[in-house]
Amino acid sequence: MSRKSKLPKYVSRDRSRYVYKKYLGVINGKPAFGKPIRLCSLEAPLSEVWRAWERVQGRNTDSLKWLLTSFNASDDFALLAPATRDGYEGYKKVITGRKVAGGEKFGDTALQNITMRTMRKYLDTYPAKTTGNRHVQYIKSAWNWASQRFENVPEKNPCIGVSLNKERPRDRYVDNKDYNLVYNVALGMRVPFFAYAMELAYLCRARRSEVFAFTLDDVLDEGLLLRRSKGSMDEITLWTPRLKAAVAGCRTIYPSAPRQLVGAPLIHNRIGRGFTKNALDSAWQRIITKALDNGLAKSFTYHDLKAKGVTDHKMENAGLHKSKKMQAVYDRLPKQIPATD
Q1: Residue-level pLDDT at 231
Q2: What 8-state DSSP symbol labels residue 274?
Q3: Predicted confidence band at 230 (pLDDT cuts at 50, 70, 90)?
Q4: pTM for the full model?
Q5: Are 272 and 262 contacting, i.e. CB atoms less than 8 angstroms apart?
Q6: HEC states along the chain?
Q7: pLDDT of 116-174, one tens digit each?
Q8: Which residues have C-beta within 8 Å of that of residue 149, sequence separation ≥ 6?
Q9: Among 50-59, 217-226, 272-281, whose mean pLDDT is lowest?
Q10: How is residue 63 annotated by DSSP?
């Protein structure tokens, strides 16, 4: 039997490579095919031709898409913060759909063909340098997880040793005029939840993921319990009239929505669930765009609100890090910290 007859269906030779053309049916009385997709070189063994074809068909278990999908379905992934999970899902969609040489999608690339140079090229060509860094860090984590569990995943992680793009530290200070302008825009939106979320970020000096992780159980007699992430210790922000008003405002958002028995979010959508990352990104962008139309000279990120809170706070408290091993073991109680005044 000839080598050609052993090829997968709709796979053929094209100059120096094997290509696959998806059959689209009969159009105007003639068979129609999609654009050729490069599989591998003509020197590749027949087994590699079939593996490449299976990747295109979505049947493979050795592609980047398979690796990221497996990681995102793992127990380790489920333990991550909701905002982190949402972010990784978004990263996976962008990474796997990105076009590479030959018109293929990066997600269809075989793991053994992904090298340190591959990742360097990804960083050099991705338009958003900071986001490109996050993509590589995500792939690195997923690869580490998978290489410990699957024999078909190369042990050498191609992201290790790759220098990330340099990131310029943000120095944007949001003054009271800009803050109040954006706050009033957010308050005037159809669902003004971001206005109250702005207040919580500023008063508690908190990240967006931390603000939207607040639950009703975190509303204590003495203040608002902030469960800090990224190695910082939890703390209680003591009540002030302004902080009480912000929490009361959160309770006015979809007040008749169903409530979870455990871990009900303080800020929730119409069905009582937390907002997704994409929903928050879109809502914030609409607010900033409207604020720019109403006199805001320069946009700022939601994370800049934490920096404003830290800068304005008389203690300049941004979360006490567990820098000492024994402190992490014995200091179990959250500290009580005044709100930004």
Answers
A1: 63
A2: P
A3: low
A4: 0.61
A5: no
A6: CCCHHHCCCCEEEECCEEEECCEEEEECCEEEECCCEEEEECCCCHHHHHHHHHHHHCCCCCEHHHHHHHHHCCHHHHCCCHHHHHHHHHHHHHHHHCECHHHCEHHHCEHHHCCHHHHHHHHHHCCCHHHHHHHHHHHHHHHHHHHCCCCCCCCCCCCCCCCCCCCCCCCCCCCHHHHHHHHHHHHCCCCCHHHHHHHHHHHHCCCHHHHCCCEHHHECCCEEEECCCCCECCEEEECCHHHHHHHHHHCCCCCCCCCCCCCCECCCCCCCCCCCHHHHHHHHHHHHHHHHHCCCCCCCCCCHHHHHHHHHCCCCCCCCECCCHHHHHHCCCCEEECCCC
A7: 999 999 999 999 899 999 999 999 999 999 999 988 899 999 999 999 999 887 788 99
A8: none
A9: 50-59
A10: B
Q: Which two tokens stand for residue 132?
A: 């490109």
Mean per-residue pLDDT over the chain, rounded: 87
pLDDT of residue 108: 86
**CA–CA gap between residue 313 and residue 111 (Å, rounded):** 49
For residue 54, pLDDT beyond 80 = no
Distance of alpha carbon 327 from alpha carbon 332, whole angstroms? 8
Please choose, from the candidates 186, 168, 189, 188, the residue with its C-alpha nearest in 3D space to the C-alpha of residue 197: 186
